[in-house]
Write a structure and sequence with these properties.
Layout (H helix, E strand, L loop, with lengths): L1 H35 L12 E6 L6 H16 L3 E6 L4 H10 L4 E2 L5
Parallel strand pairs: 1-2, 1-3
Length: about 110
């Protein structure tokens, strides 16, 4: 019975993490739009902004969330080019963020 409660708890944590990720990515997207569209003037920065989003191994939970989210944002915002990159998971994503090789990374670590 403890295992069932643990599974529900981990599902809740994954859902909470995903909602947090959506909020952060939405703020980033809004900030980029404000930065790129300066009072309606066209600038060189209005070209597509490339953002690399680290997910995890194919078939796992992170790509299941990250890939569709990137696709939706790319369709909704012509100024963004969000590219997902498979990784080995949370730890690798944090290291990649630290190294500057990705712009965003999914992680269950706090």
């Amino acid at each position: 019975m403890a295992a069932i409660g643990g599974e529900q708890s981990s599902r809740r944590t994954l859902a909470d993490s995903f909602l947090y990720f959506l909020c952060v990515l939405s703020v980033v997207s809004a900030s980029l739009r404000r930065t790129l569209f300066l009072n309606g003037r066209t600038t060189a920065w209005q070209r597509k902004t490339r953002i690399v989003l680290a997910t995890a191994t194919p078939g796992g939970g992170f790509p299941a969330y990250g890939d569709p989210y990137a696709q939706i944002l790319n369709e909704m915002d012509a100024t963004l080019a969000i590219e997902t990159r498979n990784s080995k998971g949370s730890n690798e994503n944090i290291l990649a963020l630290d190294a500057g090789t990705v712009d965003l990374g999914l992680s269950l670590a706090k």
